[in-house]
C-alpha cells in the first residue's frame, strides 16, 4: 500500500485514541524504526501510524519523546526531521498542560497562539540543518490561518475554545505554586513539558503548525491543588472527543 501524507499529528498524553479514527492504517513500533527513541511515559503507546483520516493521507505519532526522559533535543525532535523528509507540510500537535489563566477550567481545549521556551537546551543548537536558516524567524510559530479555521469549526459545532500562550518547561516535576505564578507573570496561559522543541524544528523546516493544549490541572491560584499523572490522563481523555472532532474537520478542509 502506498501513501503520500502531507499532514502529521503528534498525539500527546491521554490523546492517543485519535488513532482509532485512522482507517486503512499500517503502523510501525518505534523500536522497529532505525534511530527512533522509544517512549517511556505511561499513556504514550509508541507507534508511528500511516493511514487516512477521512479521505486525507496522514501520519500520526502515537506517543512522543520528552527531554525529561533523558533524551537530547536532537532525539526529541528527530521524528519531525523524519516528517520533513517524508514530505509533511502541516503538523498538528497536542498536549496536556496545567492552566494558569483564571478563566480556564479543567477539561478546556486551549488553542496555542504562541509559546515561551523555558527548556535549558535549544533544539537547533549545533550545526545548522539545511532545512532552514541559522536564525529562523518565529513571529508566527502557530499558523494564523489554521487557528482561524479551528475557530470557525468550533463555532459551527458549539465547542468552546480557549486561546493562549504555552510555556514549555523541562519537567518532570509538576510546577510549584510560585512557579505557576511566575510563568503567568511572564505571559503564559498554560504550562507543559513538551511541544515547544517539536514546533521550533517544524518551523525551521517550513512546516505549518497547529497546536492545542488540554487543560488537565490548574495552578497558581490562592489554594494550591495536588495533581497526579493519573488525574492528568483522566482529564485529557474526557476532553478528547471534542478535540478529535475539531482536528478531523480541520484535516478534511485543509
Automatic annotation (TrEMBL):
GO terms for cellular component: cytoplasm. SUPFAM superfamilies: Purine and uridine phosphorylases (SSF53167). The keyword Ribonucleoprotein does not apply. Its EC number is 2.4.2.1. One of its GO terms (biological process) is nucleoside metabolic process. The keyword Cell inner membrane does not apply. Keywords: Glycosyltransferase, Phosphoprotein, Transferase. Signal peptide: none annotated. GO terms for molecular function: purine-nucleoside phosphorylase activity. Pfam families: PNP_UDP_1. Pathway: Purine metabolism; purine nucleoside salvage. It comes from the Bacteria. Residues 7-252 form the Nucleoside phosphorylase domain. PROSITE patterns: PNP_MTAP_2. It is an enzyme of class 2 (transferase). Homotrimer. Belongs to the PNP/MTAP phosphorylase family. This is Purine nucleoside phosphorylase 1. It comes from Segatella buccae ATCC 33574. The gene is punA.
Amino acid at each position: 500500500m502506498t501513501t503520500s501524507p502531507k499532514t502529521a499529528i503528534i498525539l500527546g498524553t491521554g490523546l492517543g485514541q485519535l488513532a482509532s479514527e485512522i482507517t486503512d492504517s499500517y503502523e510501525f513500533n518505534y523500536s522497529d524504526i532505525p534511530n527512533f527513541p522509544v517512549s517511556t511515559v505511561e499513556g504514550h503507546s509508541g507507534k508511528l501510524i500511516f493511514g487516512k483520516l477521512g479521505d486525507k493521507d496522514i501520519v500520526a505519532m502515537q506517543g512522543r519523546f520528552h527531554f525529561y526522559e533523558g533524551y537530547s533535543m536532537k532525539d526529541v525532535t528527530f521524528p519531525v526531521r523524519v516528517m520533513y523528509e517524508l514530505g509533511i507540510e502541516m503538523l498538528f500537535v497536542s498536549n496536556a498542560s496545567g492552566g494558569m489563566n483564571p478563566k480556564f477550567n479543567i477539561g478546556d481545549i486551549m488553542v496555542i497562539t504562541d509559546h515561551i521556551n523555558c527548556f535549558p537546551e535549544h533544539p537547533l543548537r549545533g550545526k545548522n540543518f539545511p532545512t532552514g536558516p541559522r536564525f529562523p524567524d518565529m513571529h508566527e510559530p502557530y499558523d494564523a490561518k489554521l487557528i482561524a479555521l479551528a475557530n470557525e469549526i468550533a463555532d459551527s459545532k458549539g465547542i468552546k475554545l480557549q486561546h493562549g500562550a504555552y510555556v514549555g518547561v523541562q519537567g518532570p516535576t509538576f510546577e510549584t505554586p510560585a512557579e505557576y505564578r511566575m510563568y503567568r507573570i511572564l505571559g503564559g496561559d498554560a504550562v507543559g513539558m513538551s511541544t515547544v522543541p517539536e514546533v521550533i524544528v517544524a518551523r525551521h523546516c517550513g512546516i505549518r503548525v497547529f497546536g492545542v493544549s488540554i487543560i488537565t490541572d490548574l495552578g497558581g491560584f490562592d489554594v494550591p491543588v495536588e495533581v497526579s499523572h493519573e488525574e492528568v490522563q483522566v482529564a485529557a481523555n474526557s476532553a478528547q472527543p471534542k478535540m478529535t472532532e475539531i482536528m478531523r474537520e480541520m484535516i478534511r478542509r485543509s
